[in-house]
Hints:
184 residues
Amino acid sequence: xxxxxxxxxxxxxxxxxxxxxxxxxxxxxxxxxxxxxxxxxxxxxxxxxxxxxxxxxxxxxxxxxxxxxxxxxxxxxxxxxxxxxxxxxxxxxxxxxxxxxxxxxxxxxxxxxxxxxxxxxxxxxxxxxxxxxxxxxxxxxxxxxxxxxxxxxxxxxxxxxxxxxxxxxxxxxxxxxxxxxxxx
Length: 184
């Protein structure tokens, strides 16, 4: 009986340790921050990170400033988790398009955040901020990106920013393992 318990505890320890190592190698802890470098944990996001990094938005806005809701923390984290899992599913099944586009729910969040950050400009100077995404969908105005197509990522596809020069995060892979892989 003691041997069976020991084997179960050893197997559970191996499983838990493997799970922690897996999450560490995925840099999963970075998703709990607002660090834009977390977005390039997925290689498909490299062109979007590179074009954002070289845009004027990089000075003042992170990915989460535009791409997650800010009404309250519960909505922010629920949306971030749900959207992140959708991204994982799309990327693991190789279902991404040549150019990624926001779905309607994400587009609504993005436009709400454009209006939130640019309220004074939109309401006092150009009066474009008096509409929201749903109004633009039914023809009662334009979405922000109808005029500002190149903001904040510029012209983007998987091939427009090959080998983009940006400071990517360090790999969690130990140097001895990288050296072993590079020798093969």
